[in-house]
Amino acid sequence: MDPVSREQVAEFRRFNRYFTRRIGALDDHYLGQDRPLGEARLLFEIGEGVSLRELRSRLGLDAGYLSRMTKTLQSQGLVRVSVHPGDSRLRMVELTRAGRVELKEQNRRADALAAGLLHGLSGPQRDRLTEAIGTARRLLRLAGITVTRVDGAAPDARACLDAYAADIDARFPEGFDPSDLVRPEEVSGDAGAFFVAYEEGRPVGCGALRRLEPGVGELRHVWVHPDARRLGLARRLLATLETEAAARALTVLRLDTHASLTEARRMYRACGYTEIPPYSEHVYGDHWFEKRLGRAGT
């Protein structure tokens, strides 16, 4: 990737400083209520009830800090903590009636704050800002996702493949046989590689590379969880696989795709893949593609 410029960093920080000041993130009485932003956000995230473990993962909080905030809210009668009925290792937290009342008021005030900020703009300006915020949110999500190489037999690898199989089984008119999934030994060690994309510790995508013959590799199972689609993650996975292929001295990448996966064919064409005659008798292959790699996998 291109290096991040100093001006890009400076502009990002300028926006952060401006926005946190305008929404009152620095005030110990966020939205005019008697609590700081951290506690207010925790009430929002608890919602209908959640485990403390999930909250730590979702919010990236230190266990001690989360525990202290939870105890503060508990002492104020806003939340209750209990043991999960099916797993004694999990502590669950949920809002009390008073907590639900405060959260409702918090949401009302937050909506009023947002409406007040938008009031000074014309309709078209609001539309532009809304679109820009949506774009920024998607790009920041993509920036926060990590793509990691894992062993082909790793639990996260197999979980992604199971999700992939269920996804395309619902899309293929003829269904999908999970026996077609790559075996761990095909995408591990010298034979290939398997990558998993993680968002806040949760697997949200995958892609596999396996060697077909000297200098030629094949891409399999490039998949993104429905919750993480339209972020650009599929292209990022594709680029990661191409970089890995180039590092393995593979100069040609091939793949096939099903006729029903029209969006996949558009992506492959946009990323420099060209249709070729069938190179295999893959039962789910309707279109075959190939790309010749440069030194950097592009």
Walk me through the structure.
The protein is α+β, with helices and mostly antiparallel strands. Helices cover 45% and strands 22% of the residues. The strands form 2 sheets. It has a 7-stranded mixed β-sheet with strand order 4-5-6-7-8-10-9, sandwiched between helices. The chain has a 3-stranded antiparallel β-sheet with strand order 1-3-2.
Can you summarize the main beta sheet? 7 strands, mixed
Low-confidence stretches: none
Helical stretch tally: 9
Distance between the termini: 12 Å
Widest β-sheet, arrangement of strands? 4-5-6-7-8-10-9
Structural class: alpha+beta
Question: Based on CA inertia axes, which overall geometry fits?
Answer: globular
In short:
The protein has 298 residues and is an alpha+beta fold.
What key attributes describe this structure?
298 residues; single chain; alpha+beta; 10 strands; seven-stranded mixed sheet
